Amino acid sequence: MTRFTPAELEAARDRLVPDVVADGLRVLFCGINPGLTTAATGHHFARPGNRFWPVLHRSGFTPRLLTPAEQGLLPPLGLGITNVVARATARADELTPEEYREGGRLLTAKVERLRPRWLAVVGITAYRTAFGERGAATGPQERRIGGTRIWVLPNPSGLNAHWTVATMAEAYAELRVAAAEEPGRR
């Protein structure tokens, strides 16, 4: 992986990273917002120490461990990636509650257009803030967006020390099983 200088990372601030999406996905994973390494590379969950790719594999979503540069392999597997807030920051705590709420509105429109079977928000605080669901817990949610069900997963950031790769993989695998059991697209 390319190492970036602090100046190169700072230059990536506020950049937008294209979604990895297609119509009718099984699961659309939704991060909080791109980090600076993600923005610098153009690849989601690219920061060293982020556990998204290992967890995705260990939970059975991918047949092998993918690298961030291989994110384009996800749509043929029925998977995609987007974010609640599009702009890149060094830390999620740089985002305002208004950005989360606006991100929730934009995400709702995106989900209505793409119609994934499941929207998987990776971060309970992001979900609670974006959708005004203060009491939400990880797991499946009552809320739907059209025919899309919502599942909240633990944030795979290395800063989320409450969850290990193994416990996150178990949580992600529960969603994989639920998504596989439902009839329908992909």
TrEMBL record:
Q: Which CDD domains match?
A: UDG-F2_TDG_MUG
Give a single Pfam family match: UDG
Q: Does the keyword Hydrolase apply?
A: yes
The record places domain Uracil-DNA glycosylase-like at 18-181
Which PANTHER family is this protein grouped with? G/T AND G/U MISMATCH-SPECIFIC DNA GLYCOSYLASE, G_T MISMATCH-SPECIFIC THYMINE DNA GLYCOSYLASE
Which InterPro entries would you find in this protein's record? MUG/TDG (IPR015637), Uracil-DNA_glycosylase-like (IPR005122), Uracil-DNA_glycosylase-like_sf (IPR036895)
* Record gene name: mug
Superkingdom per UniProt: Bacteria
Instruction: Cite the SUPFAM superfamilies for this sequence.
Output: Uracil-DNA glycosylase-like
Keyword DNA damage set for record: yes
Which UniProt keywords are present, listed alphabetically? DNA damage, DNA repair, Glycosidase, Hydrolase
Instruction: Give its E.C. classification number.
Output: 3.2.2.28
A Gene Ontology molecular function term of the record: hydrolase activity, acting on glycosyl bonds
Q: What is the protein named?
A: G/U mismatch-specific DNA glycosylase
